[in-house]
Design a protein that fits this description.
Layout lengths: L8 H14 L3 H31 L6 H10 L5
């Protein structure tokens, strides 16, 4: 897909120089950069949701799970 975007001249120049040094086309550079940025922010959303969950409820072990784990352990501690 073709698209037009506006970016600061300094960013464009730096990107052009980087792409040339890495033997990448402009399209490949921008595709990789945007893909990495989006992927990084996906994990941030997961982390934010987990932070939200664990900050509102005290984090305690599940009593049923604890009992089952205790039964599964054959050695005495």
């Amino acid at each position: 897909m073709k698209t037009a975007i506006s970016i600061p001249d300094e960013v464009f120049t730096s990107a052009e120089q980087f792409a040339k040094r890495q033997h990448l086309s402009r399209s490949e550079l921008y595709t990789r950069a945007v893909s990495e940025y989006v992927e990084e922010h996906k994990t941030m959303q997961v982390r934010e949701k987990l932070d939200e969950i664990y900050s509102t409820e005290p984090s305690r072990p599940d009593s049923v799970l604890t009992q089952l784990q205790s039964k599964a352990v054959k050695e005495e501690w």
